[in-house]
Amino acid sequence: MFRMTVGNGLLQRCNFSRCHRWCQGQQLVDRLGAGVPQQGVMHFTSGAVCVVSRIPASFLCDKFGRRWPVIGGLLLMACASGCIPLLRSWIQATVLQVPESVGQTFVFTGIVPYVTDLWEQDVEARVQASSLAVITAELGQLVGSPPGNVYPGADVRCRLRQSGVLGFVCR
User: Fold this and answer.
1) Does the residue 170 lie in any domain?
2) What tens digit of pLDDT does each residue of 108-118 get?
């Protein structure tokens, strides 16, 4: 299925990667015993943290430039992703949403202005910059992934091959 999407461009690879990541997320949620209400709490926490951290992230991007907040956000996302194998309950997963969401906010606050600053006529550059935001978030999660099996029955080669970011490397 992944090889069929390779020829159709980056957007479909990213969509496939999101679908694959959602399936892995469902396996993780099942392993932690989180039902629908608990998943709602986790999603609400993620959204609330993104909203609250948007102003400090914007302030830091203005004060220090966009590079350092983006690097800090990537490191936060990588650390949070590296802690996934240590999770034993849905409450720990909810707490882990805080650094993940803060990191994601810093990354998108630093990168999205590049998308909006582009010329309106240059559609290809706008699409590439939008893809850069998605790829940066995926790289932050991929860098933090431990080399071992995080999920029961998951093979790290399969995860790398099916990732939208490194799919072209692992064909």
Assistant:
1) no
2) 888 777 666 65
